[in-house]
Amino acid sequence: MTATVLERSPLEKVGDAYSPDQMLKVRSLTRQAINEIAARVKPGMVEEDAVDMAHDILAEHGMVRGWHDVYVRFGTNTTKTFGQASDPGIVLGPDDIFLIDIGPVFEAWEGDGGDTFVTGANPEMARAAADARQLFHVVRKKWATDSATGRALYDFAVEQARALGWELNMDLSGHRISEFPHEAHYNGPLADIDFTPTAGPLWVLEIHIRHPHEKYGAFYEDMLLADSDFEDTSHLAA
Amino acid sequence: MTMPFPSQRHQVTLATMRRASDRTLVVTLRLATGHSFMFRAGQFVGLEAADGRPRHFSIANPEPVGDEIELHVNRVPGGTFTGALFDAAQIGDTFWMTGPFGDFAIAPGAASDLILVAGGTGFAPIKACLLHLASQAPDSRRSPRTIHLYWGARTAADLYDIASVHHLAERLPNLRFVPVLDQGAADASARHGPLHRAVVDDFSDLSDFEIYACGAPAMIDALSHACASECGFDPARLVADVFVAGTTHTDAGRPDGRTVDLVLDGREGRRTVSGVEGEALLFALKHAGVPLQATCGGKGACGTCRVRIAPEWRDRLARPAKREARLLDFIGAEKGDRLSCQILLAANLGGLELQTPFDNPGEPQ
C-alpha cells in the first residue's frame, strides 16, 4: 500500500493560533447566539433595534468583536446581499420572515453562521427558510460524497436552487475561516476554488436564496463539515 | 424566471476608453477568451487592483450580452486604481475581473409610476435597466406608468452621458428627465440643490411609488428619510444600490464634498493627507495608503482600524456610540483611541491630528 501525502492548497493555510477544537467551540457559540437572537426577535420590532439587541447578546457571550458586521434583516431586507445597507426602518410583521448572519470572533478564533425564521404561517416564506437549510445540506453532502470542488459545489447549488424555484445569490458563495483574521490567508469565495475543500473547520458554506418575483429571501450558513458534526440529516437526500 | 449567472474570475481586455468628463471615464472591456459575458441589467463587477483587492463598478449596458461591457469610472482623488486608469491605462491592457454580482433591477410589471435617482456614476446601472426596459415589447414600453429620472451631479459637464438620456427618451415616451446640479447658478436647464430635495419638491404624496436609487450612502439615506417623512413614502419600496467608497461597490462613490486636511503622525514621520467631507476617516486614511486592516470593511465590528487622536482634538469629535465604546474597551484601547471607521469627516475637523497605525499588542494592524 502506498501512502499519499496530500499537500494543502496555499489557500487553506492556517496560522499558529489555529485550533480545530477551538473553531468547533466557536461554531457552537455561534449557533447558540443565533438561536438566542431569533428567540428575542418579535413582530413589531424595528430592524435596527434587533441589530442592537443582537450585539448585546453577542457581547454577553464574550463575542464583542466580529470579523464581519452583525446582520439581522427583516422582510424585504432579506434580499440584500452581504455588506449591503438595509433599507432603514423596516418593522417585522406578524406574518413575516427574517434572517440572521453573524461572524463573531471568540478569543482568537472566528465563527460564522446564519439562519432564517418566520413569524407567521405564510407557507412560501416557511418554504424559503426550510429550503435554504435543505440546500445547505444537499450541497454539503455533494462535497462529502463526490469530493466536489468549490466551483462545482456552487454550480450544483445554482441548479438545485433553480429546481426549487429560487434564485441563488452568488455574492454569498462561501469562504475561508480560521484564527482571526482569515483574510490573511484567503479572502476570496469558496465558489472560485478549483480543488476540493478540506474537511475540518476551514471553510464556510453559504446559501442565500431569493424569491424570483417577491421581495424576500432566506439564508443559511454553517461550517463545511461532515455529517457527524450535524444532527441527523439522512432525510435530506442529494 | 430570470436566473443569476454564477460569478467567476475572468481575464478582460480594455477595448475602448473615452474621457466623458474631467472626472469620468467610460470604458469597455472584452473577455480575453472572446466569449460573451453573461449578466443581468443592474449588476456589477469587480476589477482587481494592484493591491489584489477588487474595485467594483456597475455595468452600464443591459443584457442580452455582446462581447463588451461598459463601465463608468469616476476619478477618486488619491485613488490608486482609478488614478492609474485615468493616467496610464492603454487600449489592450488586461485586468482580472470577477462577477457578475448584485441584484439591483427594476421589478417587471410594477403598477405604479417609477422614480429613478442616480448620483454621479450611479447613472450606470440605471442606464442599463432603462435600456433593458426599452428593449422590451412595445406594449410594456407604452405602459401608462411614468418613469421619472433624476440624475444629480456637481455641474452640467458632470452629466457625462447626457446623449444616452436623450436616446432613451426617444425610445421610452414616458421617460421624464430631471437633471439636478449642486453647483453653478440656477437656470432653466436644470434644478439646483441636493438631489433628494428635487424629488420631494416634485411630489406631495409618494405613498404609491417605487423608488430606485444608486449612489453614495449619504444621498440614499437623505432620499429615504426625506421621502418618508415629507411625502408618506414607504421605505420598503426603495430599491437602493449603495456605492460605498473603496470597500464594496465602487471607489467612484467617494463623496463630492470639500477637502479636509488630516495630519498623520505615523511610523513614516509626520505628513498631511486629504480626506473628503462626509467620508469616514478610515477611507480617507486608506486612500492615503495608510495600512489599516479594517477586516470588517468599516462597519465598526472588528476593531482593526484603530487610531489615536491627538489630545487637543479629542473633545471636538462626537463621543463614541455604545457599540464603538464597548469594542474599544474590549480590545484594550487607550485614552484617545478611536475606530477610524466611526469618525465622519466634517469641515470642523480640518487639521485633525492623529497617530496611525500604531502597534496594538496581540492585535493585527
Q: What's a concise summary of this model?
A:
Chain A is an alpha+beta fold. Chain A is built from four helices and nine strands; from the N terminus they run H-H-E-E-E-E-E-H-H-E-E-E-E.
Element layout with pairings:
The complex is a heterodimer of chains A (238) and B (365).
Chain A: H1 20-40, H2 47-60, E1 71-74, E2 97-102, E3 105-106, E4 109-110, E5 113-118, H3 123-146, H4 150-163, E6 167-168, E7 175-176, E8 203-210, E9 217-223
Antiparallel strand pairs in A: 1-2, 2-5, 3-4, 6-8, 7-8, 8-9
Helix pairs in contact in A: 1-2, 3-4
Chain B: E1 8-19, E2 24-31, E3 44-48, E4 54-58, E5 68-74, H1 80-88, E6 94-101, E7 114-119, H2 123-134, H3 138-141, E8 147-153, H4 162-171, E9 175-181, E10 191-192, H5 195-202, E11 210-215, H6 217-231, E12 238-242, E13 259-266, E14 269-276, H7 281-287, E15 306-309, H8 322-330, E16 337-339, E17 352-355
Helix pairs in contact in B: 2-4, 5-6
Task: Describe this entry's structure for a reader.
- The complex is a heterodimer of chains A (238) and B (365).
- Chain A has 238 residues and is an alpha+beta fold.
- Chain A has helices at 20-40, 47-60, 123-146, 150-163, and strands at 71-74, 97-102, 105-106, 109-110, 113-118, 167-168, 175-176, 203-210, 217-223.
- In chain A, the strands form 3 sheets. In chain A, strands 6, 7, 8 and 9 form a 4-stranded antiparallel beta sheet that branches.
- In chain A, a hairpin with a 2-residue loop joins strand 3 and strand 4.
- In chain A, helix 3 (123-146) runs antiparallel to helix 4 (150-163).
- Chain A is globular.
- The two termini of chain A are 33 Å apart.
- With 365 residues, chain B is of the alpha/beta class.
- Chain B has helices at 80-88, 123-134, 138-141, 162-171, 195-202, 217-231, 281-287, 322-330, and strands spanning 8-19, 24-31, 44-48, 54-58, 68-74, 94-101, 114-119, 147-153, 175-181, 191-192, 210-215, 238-242, 259-266, 269-276, 306-309, 337-339, 352-355.
- A 6-stranded antiparallel beta sheet of chain B has the order 4-3-6-1-2-5. A 6-stranded parallel beta sheet of chain B has the order 10-9-8-7-11-12, sandwiched between helices.
- In chain B, strand 13 and strand 14 form a beta hairpin.
- The longest helix of chain B is centred in the middle third of the chain and has 15 residues, at 217-231.
- Chain B is globular and about 60 Å long.
- At the A-B interface, helix 2, helix 4 and strand 6 of A face helix 6, strand 12 and helix 8 of B.
